[in-house]
Amino acid sequence: MRDPFILEASPGKFVLYGTTDPNLWGGPATGFDCFISDDLESWDGPLPAFRPPAGFWADTQFWAPEVVGRDGRFFMFATFASADPQAGPRGIQVLVADEATGPFAPWSDGPVTPRDVPCLDGTLHLDDDGTPWLVYSRGAEGIPGGEPGISDGEMYALRLSADLRAPVGSPALLFRASAAAWSKPLWFPPGVEPPEQLNLGKDPLFTDGPYLVRSAGGSLQMLWSSFGDEGYAMGVAKSASGTVAGPWSQRDEPLWARNGGHGMIFTDSRGVSRLVFHWPNDTPSERVKLVPVEITDDDIRIS
């Protein structure tokens, strides 16, 4: 599994989602599976959380599902793409279900992200007044489905309607990968062959896997992934305004530097926080890793 995400659907009942298709880079997509647990150690599954309905616009690169509970229902934000160029570029669509384990069905009318540029890895953030924002990445050239002409991956925020079905206004650029001193051009460790869909000739910097977390004191920080000196890595950005608009400053060193990433912070009903991510970053060896973390007003640190 890549891109793991954990939801506590009810006290002591956990659901794990992630990118679960074996042909994750460009093969035909099956959907998303999930797993359930009552202790975060033993997991039952897989359970079919989402299977695309007949006529669904996407058929490949089903990536990075995140699920939130809202108004008695469960909403999934996930990345989808199509092998048919006429279907448009990769985007983030919203799905809905009555149960945390699904079955999920389309909620938004196709992607909520812009229909003219490829986007990936959406995460929901709520302002203090409850306004919903989708924070997501635009991939650099050389990444599967990346955008020609972009050599420096970008992070955006897009306001959503209250019902999470449509965008409101235009997306705002939050920062680029090069803003972080630790972000380096994409590379793979010796002996690890990159997926054939990658074209590394452009030496792209990239952004992916955003996740926003607010500290007890009100500080807003963002976990996000790129590549560093030791492979795939996760860094931390902080909003000076305490809002999604930023401006965002970057921690000098990555939170996790060693060939693992696309993480989220899961805080359970007892108040225990864990960094959840996939490690290593070598297909098909990726596994879900949970590491205790401490969240302060100024930083996120591994305990």
Can you describe this structure in just a few lines?
This protein has 303 residues and is mainly β.
What features would you describe in this structure?
- The protein is an all-beta fold and 303 residues long.
- It has one domain: Glycosyl hydrolase domain, family 43 (Tachylectin-2, Chain A).
- The protein is built from no helices and 20 strands.
- Strand 9 and strand 10 form a beta hairpin.
- The radius of gyration is 18 Å and the shape is globular.
- The two termini are 24 Å apart.
- It comes from Paractinoplanes tereljensis.
- GO terms for molecular function: hydrolase activity, hydrolyzing O-glycosyl compounds.
- Pfam families: Glyco_hydro_43.
- InterPro entries: Glyco_hydro_43, Glyco_hydro_beta-prop_sf, Glycosyl_Hydrlase_43.
Q: Report how far apart the termini are.
A: 24 Å
How many discrete structural domains?
Answer: 1
In CATH, the topology is named Tachylectin-2, Chain A
Rg, nearest Å:
18 Å
Q: What fraction of residues sit in β-strands? A: over 45%
Name the helicity range: under 10%
Please count the helical segments.
0
Residue-averaged pLDDT: 91
* The CATH homologous superfamily: Glycosyl hydrolase domain, family 43
Order of the strands making up the biggest sheet? 1-2-3-4
The backbone outline, from C-alpha atoms, is globular
User: pLDDT below 50 for ≥5 consecutive residues: which ranges?
Assistant: 198-203
> CATH top level?
Mainly Beta
Output the helix-strand order. EEEEEEEEEEEEEEEEEEEE
Largest sheet: 4 strands, antiparallel
Q: What class do helices, strands and sheet pairing give?
A: mainly beta
Can you count the beta strands?
Answer: 20
User: What is the architecture at the second tier of CATH?
Assistant: 5 Propeller
